[in-house]
Design brief:
- The chain has 79 residues and is mostly helical.
- The protein has one domain.
- It contains 2 helices and no strands.
- The two termini are 42 Å apart.
């Protein structure tokens, strides 16, 4: 999931910087340098957020599965 978030946030940030500079009639060199910097920065942030989201989901599923298995084991012992 980290790669997906990085692949979305990075190019989105780059597109926003380019559009903002285009609307403000900014210079090409400065715009592309800034856009590349934000591409890398937001891709890293996206990768971290995606990793955290995946870890949270994995832990939630693991806890729910463990709870269900414990419940089924208790039901089997009672019968």
């Amino acid at each position: 999931m980290g790669r997906v978030y990085a692949g979305i946030l990075g190019p989105l940030a780059m597109a926003v910087v380019i559009c903002r500079s285009w609307l403000a009639s900014g210079g090409v060199e400065g715009t592309l340098t800034q856009a590349t910097l934000y591409l890398v920065l937001f891709a890293i942030v996206g990768a971290i957020l995606g990793h955290l989201a995946q870890s949270t989901i994995d832990e939630s599923v693991r806890a729910r599965l463990q709870s269900q298995l414990t419940h089924q084991a208790e039901q089997a012992v009672r019968q």
